[in-house]
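Recap from last week: sequence in, structure out.
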Amino acid sequence: MFIQNRIDKLRMEMSKENLDVVLIVSAENRRYFSNFTGTSGALLISENEMILLTDFRYVQQAKEEAPMFEVIQHIGVLSESVGAHLTKMRVNEAGIEDSLSIGFLRDIKKKASSLSIVSIDEAVGNIRKIKDASEIEKIKKGVAICDLAFKHILTFIKPGLTEKEIGLELEYIMKKNGAEGIKANHVIASGERSSLPHGAATNRVVQIGEFVKMDIGAIVEGYYSDFTRTVVIGEPTEKQKDIYSIVKHAQLEALKHIGPGKVCSELDEVARSIIREAGYGDNFGHSLGHALGLQIHEKPVMRSTDKTVLEPGMVITVEPGIYLPGWGGVRIEDLLIITEEGYENATKSTKELQIINAN
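Predicted structure tokens:
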């Protein structure tokens, strides 16, 4: 049902743009429109046809995962087979993804030289930005796994562990509890390294008196979740408590304003103004948040230049932070599902600064 609804929406967009066919090659869009999870393949979707081209390794899998599609085994180079099929289909106008390589496009044009092409990224993005019930369920499962992993890691962290050891423990707990994978480069950054917004785990040893920033994400059936909390080892200093309090206040104020009809850039400014007025405006250099789904970063993005209006069904993160080079940093991140009435916060973990016993 969900796949058919997505195809129907795509065909409506095709009709608006007078497209004869859409070519889908990227892994995330292939999965979104067909449920096919193999690593090689292409979708050709027209008004009357739905073709999935793949090689011998994935033919049986494709038939099982994408029963709505005509599965065709290609021999040789995928791009050349796509070009040959486009010629057979006698189409003139094709929609393609911006990510399609020059080489792939060149091979297509060898077979279908008269084909006119336009980008479908905006159209596909408009479809994918509103999540259906199936997608939301998977994302919420991922967040629940993150919550569980965070609860566990609070009892595991202690001085003397390395960032990598903390990261490996988080990964183990997440996979043990249902994650099929984790987002690339979990951020596990301690001490002065916590000022790195995307500081991947190293062999640095965690010490008493330091922040440990953890930005993690579980993958469930291809869908990402995103979660950040910052903890302190031993009693925090006044400055640590102050910085944490500012970030928490900025996030809570942003949450008060979020809901359908709200503009991304205006929400970003709500949180940013609080951090700026506290004197740390230059130390909050990324967006307030972003959408996610089959990719960890999707549109819209809550930044000053994004005028997107939030709609029910969108899934976004809210993650303000302050980063002080040579000292450390704090980020707090929740994941929200926009609803008709406002939003549902899928992240259940406390926002209070968690103090890890240093003994």
